[in-house]
From TrEMBL:
Residues 1-20 form the signal peptide. It is found in: Cell membrane. It comes from the Eukaryota. It comes from Polypedilum vanderplanki. This is Ionotropic receptor. Keywords: Cell membrane, Glycoprotein, Membrane, Receptor, Signal, Transmembrane, Transmembrane helix. InterPro entries: Insect_Ionotropic_Sensory_Rcpt. The keyword Phosphoprotein does not apply. The chain crosses the membrane at residues 361-382, 424-445, 612-635, 647-665.
């Protein structure tokens, strides 16, 4: 009996020690967890002056309550803390105006919250639409197995759930706990291994035994490397079409529910510049695509690697329309919008202008030089000795200038040189003129029987130069005149008509329907830089399914890394002066020539097309020229030798006479 009492006493002592150890471990875990959460809150929220709420979702365990007590005790002296308990999400109607520290005991609660967001529950609406720009979520889940359970649940759910998870704009930072460490992770869609899929990234670890972080805790403000992943820029142009022909073309592609990509479109403007700068700095690949209808646009804007944006774009209508109408359309993210329309008919080329059109300027210069050189040689030859003329032309050729002119215009040759080399040179010149004369005549004939219009202006300066009538709305006329004077420096005054919006639309409609035979350039533009700056900032967080978004909005939300990256670039633009940036880099679309590759109706021959004829002619001409120079050298040498022979004969004869005279004189003296 005594032994039994001793055993029971020892058992209770051991159990008490075990309980004490468990309590100490529990207290140590609570302390470690609360310290880790406090450190993260202090670094991510307090140092950045971001207010937040504690939200406890589901049934709070003793551990969760102890952690909250410790955290509030440590932070209450610095900032006020509000604790919100969410027991029933279906009836929860608390408006979130601050960032959130979200604590839960089970991943099931996260999954339930996530599923409710699919049903457009008020909490999802608040989380997606009412969250401020600096809104951040910090989630704490007790066991690491729970967060793994949540990730597995995310993988087996359909794509709609996955998209809604992103659209919830939350759970950017997750704190999980295992036996030895408390880990701070971030769920990102982009990593070295994955583009568009969730990939948890371990930011830091807090040692429970060491009571400190493995490395210095740094604020994870934004993700600065998307590892080259492609982000698709979706553009809607449903409102762009104005004519029946364009509507027919639009309807022909509307049946295709796949995302339509037009590589030939030229995107330009501040929106495009921001995206390209962000892509360069943060290592992602922008891919521009266009969807025709609003429904399809909103469907595709929901995919997890898409950006929703209306970019400035320039569209060339002439490829799809029977009428001679060309429109340049530029669209930006806000009311600082520029429309630049050119409405034909434009001037036709006159028949006299067509005479010089078959060849380009370089070809004409080279042809002129070649023919001028020929006549220069002919005219110089009139001043040279007759023997050189006979050698160069032949004795039977009396009118070399007439012969050269006849060859150029395709006339027959009445008198040919007798020498073979001279005939070969003449043959090469005839062959050269035949090629260029045939090309010129064939292209000129095609030009003469066709009505060709002059190229359309590519800038405001061209409009003024070509005497276009620029139609402006009264609200933008002052800005246009002011900027026009600065860009063109007042060299010419444009012909401007200022009319009301209603009359502007009527006149434009009559012009595109062919009822007005006048050169008009319809220009609608505003230059409200203040509104541009504010709109670029605000539009980044707008996502409305009932209308097209006016800005750049990634499906992960207003506080995700990409939006922060683009916000940074825009803030830099604004701080440096956005108008100065546009002028410095030539981004005024209305004053910079449009880079549009269009098919020129004039099939003009350039020097590249005729290069073979020039090269072959010069190469062939080199042989007779060498032979001709050899003949001249031989002739001059022979003539020189004959002169030397005559001189020597005269000298010998003179010496012979002297010797005879000397002999005669000697005999006489004897």
């Amino acid at each position: 009996m005594q032994k039994l009492k001793v055993i029971i006493t020892i058992f209770f002592i051991i159990m008490a020690q075990v309980g004490t150890l468990k309590m100490q471990n529990s207290l140590e875990t609570v302390y470690s967890t609360s310290k880790a959460i406090t450190d993260v809150i202090h670094e991510f929220y307090i140092t950045n002056k971001i207010y937040f709420d504690f939200i406890i979702y589901g049934k709070a365990t003793n551990h969760i309550n102890d952690v909250i007590d410790e955290v509030t005790k440590k932070l209450s002296e610095i900032i006020p803390i509000e604790i919100i308990h969410i027991k029933d999400i279906e009836n929860w109607n608390h408006e979130l105006n601050q960032s959130v520290v979200f604590l839960t005991e089970s991943a099931d609660n996260l999954i339930n919250l996530h599923k409710n967001s699919i049903k457009n529950h008020p909490i999802a609406t608040k989380l997606t639409n009412l969250i401020p720009k600096k809104f951040k979520f910090l989630v704490y889940v007790e066991e690491i197995l729970e967060i793994k359970k949540f990730r597995r649940a995310m993988e087996i759910h359909n794509e709609e759930i996955s998209l809604s998870w992103c659209d919830l704009r939350c759970f950017e930072f997750i704190i999980t706990r295992n036996e030895n460490f408390i880990n701070l992770t971030a769920n990102l869609l982009f990593s070295e291994k994955s583009c568009g899929n969730f990939e948890p990234i371990l930011l830091n670890s807090f040692g429970i035994n060491s009571q400190k972080w493995n490395k210095e805790l740094e604020n994870f403000n934004h993700f600065d490397n998307f590892h080259g992943c492609m982000l698709t820029i979706s553009v809607n142009f449903n409102h762009f079409w104005y004519t029946e022909e364009a509507k027919k073309y639009r309807n022909s592609i509307s049946d295709n529910k796949e995302l339509i990509t037009f590589q030939s479109f030229n995107y330009r403007g501040i929106s495009n510049e921001v995206i390209n700068l962000a892509a360069k700095k943060y290592n992602f690949t922008p891919h521009f695509s266009i969807f025709d209808n609003l429904k399809g646009y909103n469907e595709h804007i929901g995919t997890k690697n898409y950006l929703g944006s209306k970019l400035k774009m320039i569209f060339f209508l002439n490829s799809y329309l029977d009428k001679k109408i060309v429109g340049f359309h530029t669209l930006d993210q806000c009311d600082t919008i520029s429309y630049y329309y050119l409405v034909t008919p434009n001037d036709l080329y006159t028949n006299y202008e067509k005479l010089l059109m078959p060849f380009d300027i370089t070809t004409w210069i080279l042809l002129t030089f070649t023919i001028s050189s020929t006549f220069a040689v002919v005219f110089v030859s009139y001043k040279i000795p007759q023997w050189f003329k006979d050698l160069f032309y032949g004795k039977n050729v009396k009118d070399p200038a007439y012969n050269a002119l006849g060859i150029i215009f395709g006339m027959s040759q009445l008198k040919l040189p007798n020498e073979s080399i001279n005939r070969f040179i003449l043959l090469l010149f005839i062959w050269f003129c035949l090629i260029f004369r045939t090309c010129y005549q064939s292209i000129l004939f095609e030009f003469m029987i066709s009505d060709m219009r002059k190229p359309l202006p590519a800038s405001i300066e061209d409009l003024v130069k070509y005497k276009y009538t620029i139609v402006l709305k009264e609200t933008v006329a002052k800005d246009f005149i002011k900027i026009n004077d600065r860009i063109i420096n007042g060299r010419e005054s444009p012909n401007v008509i200022k009319i009301s919006t209603e009359n502007f639309n009527l006149l434009y409609r009559d012009a595109i329907n062919g009822e007005i035979d006048t050169k008009f350039a319809f220009l609608v533009t505003t230059f409200d830089h203040v509104h541009l700056n504010s709109s670029l900032k605000n539009s980044l967080t707008i996502m409305d399914n009932e209308k097209i978004t006016l800005g750049i909005s990634h499906i992960m939300g207003s506080n995700n890394m990409l939006i922060e990256a683009i916000n940074y670039i825009i803030s830099r633009f604004i701080s440096n002066g956005i108008s100065n940036h546009l002028i410095e880099f030539g981004s005024w679309d209305l004053w910079r020539p449009f880079d549009i590759e269009t098919e020129d109706p004039r099939k003009i021959l350039s020097l590249d097309d005729l290069e073979f004829g020039f090269v072959l002619w010069i190469f062939s001409l080199s042989f007779p020229i060498i032979c001709f120079l050899y003949e001249i050298f031989s002739y001059l040498t022979a003539k020189l030798l004959r002169n030397v022979q005559d001189f020597l004969f005269t000298l010998v004869l003179f010496l012979f006479l002297i010797m005879k005279l000397r002999k005669f004189y000697y005999r006489r003296n004897l």
